Amino acid sequence: MPKSAHPSAKSALAEIWNAQDKTHALAAVKQFVELFGAKFAKAVAKITDDLDELLAFYDYPAEHWIHLRTTNPIESTFATVRHRTKITRGPGSKAAGLAMAYKLIMAAQDRWRAVNAPHLVALVRAGATFVNGKRVEREEHQQAVTPSVETAA
């Protein structure tokens, strides 16, 4: 996209990933396609081709969404590694680079923010089902996934 389209595209993308639930996010995607599909088909395809992966965080507890929506822990951790290797013009050797990255990441780990609602991590690992950030039981999930015969006819 040209730079002139970036501000409006950025706000439209923010509407997608900051939506209150998956239904609203899908509506925001539809609006994004309507706004930019005709002129910037390749950019729109980047969103629509992997839409399930883009919106996968809605299948986890709502308390975890803030952690899943951001890449900042990865970016900020490797920023220090990138800064050090830029100053020294490379790590020297492969072993030195790995050691430096390991030490810097271990130091950065002390400043990482804890996960919201850590008690829900065990449920996620156990395979609990979440829809729009709320845990659903098997019967509710089955009804949500499988439309009844009356509504299908």
What does this structure look like?
This protein has ten helices and two strands. With 153 residues, the chain is mainly alpha-helical. Among the domains are: 3-54; 72-109, no CATH class. Strand 1 and strand 2 (134-136) form a beta hairpin.
Gyration radius (Cα, Å) is: 21 Å
In what range is the share of β-strand residues? under 5%
**Largest β sheet strand count, sense and barrel closure:** 2 strands, antiparallel
How are helices and strands ordered from N to C?
A: HHHHHHHHEEHH
Strands in their spatial order, largest beta sheet: 1-2
| Category by helix and strand content | mainly alpha
Give the helix tally: 10
Low-confidence stretches: 146-153
Global mean pLDDT: 78
Between the first and last Cα atoms, what is the distance in angstroms? 44 Å
Q: What is the 3D shape? A: flat
Oligomer: single chain
Count of distinct strands: 2
**What is the helix content?**
55-70%
Fold topology:
Layout: H1 6-17, H2 22-36, H3 41-48, H4 51-54, H5 65-68, H6 72-87, H7 94-109, H8 119-126, E1 129-131, E2 134-136, H9 138-145, H10 149-152
Antiparallel strand pairs: 1-2
